[in-house]
Every structure is written in structure tokens, then in C-alpha cells.
Amino acid sequence: MQVTLRRLRKKLAQEEKGFTLIELLVVVVIIGVLVAIAIPTYLNYTKGAKNKSAQSDVRGAVSAVEQYYTENNNTYPPNADNNGNAGTNLSLTDGNAGTAAQTVTVSDGNTLFYRRMSNTHYNVCAQNADGQAIYYYNSAKGGSVKKWTGNMADCYGQAAT
Length: 161
Hints:
Distance between the termini: 94 Å
Mean pLDDT: 82
Shape: rod-shaped
Number of helices: 3
Order of helices and strands: HHEEEEEEEH
Low-confidence stretches: none
Oligomer: single chain
Helix content: 40-55%
């Protein structure tokens, strides 16, 4: 019995020295399926992160504008933007001595615009790094940061309606 088992083990060891082509193909297919699932999921996560970054920039700008308003005799700062230079910080100041300035930190890749529409309200618009989404805040309407469906120029020029 032991002789037969030894002979069988020796025979199996000589015949199986690697993977068959079918086994390798199965592994490649499994890896392909996993990659096909993982890449779109990853892309959705990065898209969501860019959108949240633009929303956060709008919220930060609103806070800075309101702080400027409070510190400067209830006057909103003049228009400001980062001139399309994505990721460049935004400075809110009128350039006069004794006027408190505010700086808005803009996330890498985002573009931010602030427009004083009148002495009573303003608009803040931010476009995310991949240019796929624009978020805005209109102080006349109040509420939360919302997604804008038009283009950036229309966003910061919107009326107070």
C-alpha cells in the first residue's frame, strides 16, 4: 500500500509542475472583474471629493464675507475672484488703510468668484477642480450652498430673485 502511495505521489509530482492555461485565464478574468468594479467606484469617490471641496470653498467665502461685513461698518467687500487661477487664495479688501481684510483659502484646482450685487446682498460661486460642477450661495435668498446648472459667468452675475 505504501509503495503504491509513493509511486502515485511521485507520478503526481512529475506531472504537475505548473499552472494550466485555463487556471491562468481564470485568474486573469477574476482580476479583470475586480478592476472593472474598483475603477468606477474610485472615480465616483474622487468626483464626490472635488464637489465637496467646491462647496466647502463657498462656505468659507461666505464666512469671510460676513466677517468683513461685520468688521467694516456693515459694508460688503468689493468684487473679488482668483482670476481663474485655480487654487489661488482670494483676498477680500478695499485697499483702504484701516479696513479689515479677509482671506479665503481656495482648495487646489478650484475657482472662486465673489460678487457684491448691491449694498444688501452678494453672490459666491465656486467651480470644482474638474470643471464639472458649480456651487453657489446667494445672500439675498439665503439658505444653503446649492448646485448651479448654468455656466460660471451666469452664476456670479445672477439676480437676487
